[in-house]
Amino acid sequence: MNPDTEAVNPRSRDIDRKTLPEILRIINDEDHLVADAVKRVLPQGALLVERIAEKLAGGGRLFYVGAGTSGRIGVMDAAECPPTYGVSPDSIIALIAGGPEAVFRARETAEDNAGEGKALMEFHAVCGKDIVVGLSASGSTPFVAAALKEARARGAATAAVLCNAGGSVTENADLAIPLLTGPEVITGSTRMKAASAQKMFLNMVSTAVMIRLGKVTGNFMTSLKPRNKKLRERACFIVSSVTGVSQETSERLLERNQYDVRETVNALRRRKHGEPRIESLAHPVSCKG
Description:
By secondary structure, this protein is of the alpha/beta class. About 45% of the residues lie in helices and about 10% in strands. The chain folds into 2 domains: about 20-210, 3-Layer(aba) Sandwich (Rossmann fold), CATH 3.40.50; about 215-289, Helicase, Ruva Protein, domain 3 (Orthogonal Bundle). The chain contains 10 helices and 5 strands, in the order ααβαβααβαββαααα. Strands 2-1-3-4-5 form a 5-stranded parallel β-sheet, sandwiched between helices. Helix 1 runs parallel beside helix 7 (about 195-210), helix 2 packs across helix 7 (about 195-210) and helix 5 runs parallel beside helix 6.
């Protein structure tokens, strides 16, 4: 029996005979199912957030491991966390089957390379301080399954995010999180609903982790690294919004503090309100040695 991600969707069976507005409506209707699939795993998501936050706070690392679209989603999430939340790029690492080239050009055979998954865990010296999250729409990607097996053998915490009820990637996962989006509009095209669910889920998890680690004040990214004009303007807005000073004052103080948003907010709070410093919990270090 085919897993749900490979099943035929009866609602799009004759999509090639539909008008263009009907085609788009069918796709959009199916996309509405994604948020519900994510909502159903919120309890498991909370457990994953706690485990990731604990590992990062203890100096460990988060690894995303995936192939194809799932791997690219991991790459996006890992790449976006350092500039947004000020974490070290070495603390959140994305590994994709086939290497960096596979981010830009599909390498379909790479997902079958179990040896590569195992070797990458060895290369990065994954250990008990770390957590490895496997991403697989099908739930049976050999590259991901092998990486999780090796990670667990090396003492790391493990989790699997998949879009079917089960599969080989769950065999060595401490926590399995099934995002059940059902059959795709185009049979087997998991870059659609399955990928959208994985992207939504990782956005949610990594954001919640950063909140738990003290990287957010209110709903502002006070650990932002403002390295361009747009982000410097955002930094001024954040400081002004959190502390109540003018944006002109924010800009002046940010320049004095080399655009360190957190230090600027801390200085203003100490001076104006006597509020405590905002501290972060995570100080990542390598497992090596």
